Amino acid sequence: MKRSRLSLIGLIAAAGLALAGCGSSSTGPAGSAPAGGQDTSLTDIQTSGVLKVGTEGTYKPFSFHASGNGELTGYDVEIISAVANKLGVKPNFQETQFDAIFAGLEAKRFDVIANQVSITDERKAKYEFSTPYTVSTGVIVTKADDNSITSFDSLKGKTTAQSLTSNWYKLAQQSGANVQAVEGWAQAITLLKQGRVDATINDKLTYLDQQKADHDQSIKIAAETSDKSLSAFAIRKGATSLTDAINKALGELQADGTLQKISQKYFDADVTK
Length: 273
What we know:
Blueprint: H1 9-21, H2 41-48, E1 50-55, E2 58-59, E3 63-65, E4 72-73, H3 75-87, E5 90-95, H4 101-106, E6 112-118, H5 121-124, E7 127-129, E8 134-143, E9 159-162, H6 167-174, E10 178-181, H7 185-193, E11 200-203, H8 204-214, E12 219-236, H9 240-255, H10 258-267
Parallel strand pairs: 1-5, 1-6, 9-10
Antiparallel strand pairs: 2-3, 3-4, 6-12, 7-12, 8-11, 8-12
């Protein structure tokens, strides 16, 4: 469920840098600073009155259109909108496929990415990140009446349902489970409830999203990973004044309960810290 895909991004970004090198180097586009110049990322946004936000628009419950073709909404959409309000500007959402979203940030089509971007060391080397606004774990989901699985060690010899392209498949294997391949979460839960597998591993946010919709009392979280996944807004390198302003806004929204309220709306839980 987390957005950790990086395919083609490096090639696109490299091409963009090569083209930029053919032009004048005296000044950069709005929001950038010439070599040794001043960071104007925040003042440029405040002057324009607009925060340009890159997002998918097809990633429920984080960024999606209500009823398929209605207003853009979602957990990430509401949080960045609240941040923009704190900055005294309006959000302008620009929808794009995830594989092109970082290239769009680098090309300055938008100022920030709001799309459940996981913080990784590779990305931190290329971009600035806000304070995380989503914290999640990996979870083992079992039938509600199954008490035989209480940890990842107890998956040894059990059968789990996993997508073979996910990190959860690797974790299931490392835990000694027999893995039955499925296409995704929905199929995994179906097999679990039918008793054809013992468990499935996935992101806790996926479980919470499903439970928000279905309130399924026949399944439960049996165990969680100790490692946590952090998601934050991605911002261009060098746009430190904007990053600092976003972090200040997030701190205020955390303190006044706004982040928790948005989280409860979409997950019936606080996933913000």
